Protein backbone atom coordinates (compact mmCIF):
# COMPACT_ATOMS: atom_id res chain seq x y z
CA UNK A 1 0.00 0.00 0.00
CA UNK A 2 1.41 3.35 -1.07
CA UNK A 3 1.52 6.22 1.43
CA UNK A 4 -0.71 9.12 0.38
CA UNK A 5 0.80 12.59 0.40
CA UNK A 6 -0.59 16.04 -0.29
CA UNK A 7 -1.39 16.16 -4.02
CA UNK A 8 0.46 19.49 -4.29
CA UNK A 9 3.69 17.53 -3.86
CA UNK A 10 3.10 15.65 -7.11
CA UNK A 11 4.14 18.80 -8.99
CA UNK A 12 7.59 20.30 -9.21
CA UNK A 13 7.43 23.35 -6.95
CA UNK A 14 9.82 26.23 -6.34
CA UNK A 15 10.48 27.59 -2.86
CA UNK A 16 8.21 30.52 -3.74
CA UNK A 17 5.43 28.07 -4.76
CA UNK A 18 5.84 26.12 -1.53
CA UNK A 19 5.75 29.28 0.60
CA UNK A 20 2.60 30.44 -1.19
CA UNK A 21 0.87 27.11 -0.48
CA UNK A 22 2.01 27.17 3.15
CA UNK A 23 0.72 30.72 3.61
CA UNK A 24 -2.63 29.62 2.14
CA UNK A 25 -2.76 26.71 4.61
CA UNK A 26 -2.72 24.11 1.82
CA UNK A 27 0.63 22.58 2.82
CA UNK A 28 2.60 22.25 6.04
CA UNK A 29 6.29 21.97 6.69
CA UNK A 30 5.68 18.65 8.42
CA UNK A 31 3.99 17.28 5.26
CA UNK A 32 6.93 18.47 3.19
CA UNK A 33 9.50 16.83 5.48
CA UNK A 34 7.52 13.56 5.59
CA UNK A 35 7.30 13.58 1.79
CA UNK A 36 11.05 14.02 1.37
CA UNK A 37 11.83 11.39 4.00
CA UNK A 38 9.61 8.99 2.04
CA UNK A 39 11.41 9.83 -1.22
CA UNK A 40 14.80 9.33 0.41
CA UNK A 41 13.69 5.90 1.65
CA UNK A 42 12.15 4.99 -1.71
CA UNK A 43 14.88 6.16 -4.09
CA UNK A 44 18.03 6.66 -2.07
CA UNK A 45 18.01 3.69 0.27
CA UNK A 46 15.73 1.35 -1.73
CA UNK A 47 14.80 1.16 -5.41
CA UNK A 48 17.69 2.50 -7.51
CA UNK A 49 19.77 3.02 -4.32
CA UNK A 50 21.20 6.40 -5.29
CA UNK A 51 23.19 6.45 -2.05
CA UNK A 52 23.26 10.24 -1.81
CA UNK A 53 22.17 10.64 1.83
CA UNK A 54 24.47 9.64 4.70
CA UNK A 55 22.29 10.55 7.63
CA UNK A 56 18.84 11.94 8.45
CA UNK A 57 18.27 14.51 11.20
CA UNK A 58 16.30 12.53 13.82
CA UNK A 59 14.59 15.76 14.93
CA UNK A 60 13.52 16.99 11.48
CA UNK A 61 9.82 16.20 11.93
CA UNK A 62 9.72 17.87 15.35
CA UNK A 63 11.50 20.94 13.98
CA UNK A 64 8.98 21.08 11.11
CA UNK A 65 6.07 20.93 13.57
CA UNK A 66 7.59 23.74 15.64
CA UNK A 67 8.08 25.88 12.52
CA UNK A 68 4.47 25.22 11.44
CA UNK A 69 3.33 26.44 14.87
CA UNK A 70 5.64 29.46 14.66
CA UNK A 71 4.21 30.33 11.22
CA UNK A 72 0.69 30.39 12.70
CA UNK A 73 1.52 32.30 15.87
CA UNK A 74 4.39 34.65 14.96
CA UNK A 75 4.70 34.59 11.17
CA UNK A 76 7.62 33.51 9.03
CA UNK A 77 11.31 34.07 9.73
CA UNK A 78 12.27 34.33 6.09
CA UNK A 79 11.96 32.80 2.63
CA UNK A 80 13.24 29.41 3.83
CA UNK A 81 10.76 29.11 6.73
CA UNK A 82 9.82 25.43 6.94
CA UNK A 83 11.88 24.39 3.90
CA UNK A 84 13.99 21.23 4.35
CA UNK A 85 17.61 21.38 3.17
CA UNK A 86 20.43 18.85 3.00
CA UNK A 87 24.01 19.72 3.95
CA UNK A 88 27.20 18.22 2.60
CA UNK A 89 28.81 16.02 5.21
CA UNK A 90 31.61 18.54 5.77
CA UNK A 91 29.30 21.27 7.13
CA UNK A 92 28.97 21.21 10.91
CA UNK A 93 25.58 21.32 12.56
CA UNK A 94 24.50 21.21 16.18
CA UNK A 95 21.82 18.63 15.34
CA UNK A 96 22.24 15.00 16.40
CA UNK A 97 24.21 14.13 13.26
CA UNK A 98 27.82 13.37 12.43
CA UNK A 99 30.13 15.56 10.38
CA UNK A 100 32.73 13.31 8.80
CA UNK A 101 33.59 14.79 5.38
CA UNK A 102 32.92 11.27 4.14
CA UNK A 103 35.91 9.73 5.89
CA UNK A 104 35.94 6.84 8.37
CA UNK A 105 38.48 8.69 10.53
CA UNK A 106 35.83 11.30 11.42
CA UNK A 107 32.69 9.14 11.37
CA UNK A 108 32.06 9.60 15.12
CA UNK A 109 32.53 13.39 15.02
CA UNK A 110 29.49 15.30 16.29
CA UNK A 111 29.77 19.07 16.38
CA UNK A 112 28.66 21.12 19.36
CA UNK A 113 27.89 24.18 17.23
CA UNK A 114 26.52 25.22 13.86
CA UNK A 115 28.70 26.40 11.00
CA UNK A 116 28.07 30.02 9.95
CA UNK A 117 26.07 28.83 6.93
CA UNK A 118 23.82 26.68 9.14
CA UNK A 119 23.19 29.59 11.51
CA UNK A 120 22.04 31.68 8.55
CA UNK A 121 19.82 28.86 7.25
CA UNK A 122 18.17 28.48 10.66
CA UNK A 123 17.67 32.25 10.97
CA UNK A 124 15.79 32.07 7.66
CA UNK A 125 13.67 29.19 9.03
CA UNK A 126 15.22 26.25 7.15
CA UNK A 127 15.05 22.68 8.48
CA UNK A 128 18.30 20.72 8.33
CA UNK A 129 16.92 17.43 6.96
CA UNK A 130 20.17 15.51 6.83
CA UNK A 131 23.70 15.09 5.53
CA UNK A 132 24.52 14.33 1.90
CA UNK A 133 27.26 11.99 0.75
CA UNK A 134 30.25 13.71 -0.83
CA UNK A 135 33.62 12.98 -2.35
CA UNK A 136 35.77 12.06 0.65
CA UNK A 137 37.48 15.09 2.21
CA UNK A 138 36.08 17.18 -0.68
CA UNK A 139 38.58 15.43 -2.96
CA UNK A 140 41.45 16.86 -0.94
CA UNK A 141 43.41 13.59 -1.03
CA UNK A 142 43.79 12.94 -4.74
CA UNK A 143 42.77 14.24 -8.15
CA UNK A 144 42.24 10.66 -9.31
CA UNK A 145 39.41 9.94 -6.84
CA UNK A 146 35.97 9.35 -8.36
CA UNK A 147 33.51 12.15 -7.66
CA UNK A 148 30.79 11.19 -5.21
CA UNK A 149 32.76 8.39 -3.51
CA UNK A 150 33.54 8.33 0.19
CA UNK A 151 34.74 5.59 2.52
CA UNK A 152 31.86 6.36 4.88
CA UNK A 153 29.06 6.51 2.31
CA UNK A 154 30.26 4.60 -0.74
CA UNK A 155 29.58 5.73 -4.32
CA UNK A 156 26.72 8.11 -5.04
CA UNK A 157 24.84 7.08 -8.19
CA UNK A 158 23.59 9.40 -10.94
CA UNK A 159 19.78 9.46 -10.46
CA UNK A 160 19.22 10.28 -14.14
CA UNK A 161 21.15 7.26 -15.36
CA UNK A 162 22.18 4.72 -12.74
CA UNK A 163 24.64 3.11 -15.15
CA UNK A 164 26.36 6.44 -15.78
CA UNK A 165 29.03 8.04 -13.63
CA UNK A 166 28.45 11.35 -11.94
CA UNK A 167 31.82 12.68 -13.14
CA UNK A 168 35.52 12.14 -12.86
CA UNK A 169 37.51 14.85 -11.15
CA UNK A 170 40.80 15.57 -12.86
CA UNK A 171 43.30 18.35 -12.44
CA UNK A 172 42.82 19.70 -15.96
CA UNK A 173 39.83 18.49 -17.97
CA UNK A 174 41.23 20.09 -21.12
CA UNK A 175 44.14 17.60 -20.98
CA UNK A 176 41.80 14.63 -21.43
CA UNK A 177 41.21 13.40 -24.99
CA UNK A 178 37.67 14.30 -26.07
CA UNK A 179 36.74 10.67 -26.77
CA UNK A 180 37.78 9.63 -23.25
CA UNK A 181 35.88 12.52 -21.67
CA UNK A 182 32.69 11.72 -23.61
CA UNK A 183 33.06 8.04 -22.81
CA UNK A 184 33.43 8.69 -19.09
CA UNK A 185 30.58 11.16 -18.84
CA UNK A 186 27.99 9.76 -21.23
CA UNK A 187 28.10 6.07 -21.98
CA UNK A 188 26.74 3.34 -19.67
CA UNK A 189 29.31 1.12 -17.93
CA UNK A 190 29.35 -1.76 -20.45
CA UNK A 191 29.76 0.64 -23.39
CA UNK A 192 32.55 2.52 -21.58
CA UNK A 193 34.45 -0.73 -21.18
CA UNK A 194 34.02 -1.62 -24.87
CA UNK A 195 35.11 1.83 -26.03
CA UNK A 196 38.09 2.16 -23.73
CA UNK A 197 39.62 -1.31 -23.93
Automatic annotation (TrEMBL):
Signal peptide feature range: none
Classification via SUPFAM superfamilies: Amidase signature (AS) enzymes
InterPro entries hit by this protein: Amidase_dom (IPR023631), AS_sf (IPR036928)
Superkingdom of origin organism: Bacteria
Domain Amidase positions: 31-166
PANTHER family referenced in this protein's UniProt entry, alphabetically: AMIDASE, OS04G0183300 PROTEIN
Name assigned to this protein: Amidase
Amino acid sequence: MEIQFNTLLQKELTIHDIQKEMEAGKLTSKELVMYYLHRIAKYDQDGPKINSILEINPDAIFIAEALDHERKTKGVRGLLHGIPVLLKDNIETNDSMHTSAGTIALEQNISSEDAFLVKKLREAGAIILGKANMTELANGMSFEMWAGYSARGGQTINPYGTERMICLLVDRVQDLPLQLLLTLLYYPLEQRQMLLF
